[in-house]
Design a protein that fits this description.
The chain is an all-alpha fold and 144 residues long. It contains 5 helices and no strands.
Length: 144
């Protein structure tokens, strides 16, 4: 089993590899391929070559794995980069996902009984309209 520091390095390298690959791919699609660093261009050329032999999802997974291994060794990881569990669905659908766990919604007040209906705190629209009409009448009366 890998040590704790190497797991941290692996997680950082993996998330950086996924983000960088997505950025590089988008820049290449927008026509900025020549502006990318040499290593990024090399990874993208390998990715494009693999697209002819395998599906896009498989080619992306292999490219991210290669970038991850490179980053892992650059960040000081020892030996081969450990395999981390990744969410394959989030990489396939192209949507950005938050990596933080969501906070649960706040609990209802304990004092409120569940069988009682909740008290409405908003004013009805008719009452607001009546108040506005009354203010207009008072304003007209005072101005004349």
């Amino acid at each position: 089993m890998a040590s704790r520091p190497s797991i941290r390095i692996a997680r950082k390298a993996r998330s950086k590899a996924e983000a960088d690959f997505a950025t590089w791919l988008m820049m290449a699609k927008l026509g900025s391929f020549d502006d990318l660093p040499e290593n990024a261009q090399a990874f993208l050329l390998d990715y494009r070559g693999r697209l002819e032999r395998m599906s896009e999802a498989e080619s992306k997974a292999v490219a991210v794995r290669e970038i991850y291994a490179s980053y892992y060794s650059e960040m000081g990881g020892v030996g081969a980069a450990p395999e981390l569990e990744t969410v394959a669905a989030s990489a396939d659908d192209g949507a950005a996902r938050s990596q933080k766990a969501r906070m649960p919604p706040p609990a209802r007040l304990a004092a409120a009984a569940p069988d009682r209906p909740a008290v409405r705190k908003s004013m009805p629209a008719l009452l607001i309209f009546a108040a506005m009409v009354a203010l207009l009448v008072v304003y007209k009366f005072l101005m004349n």
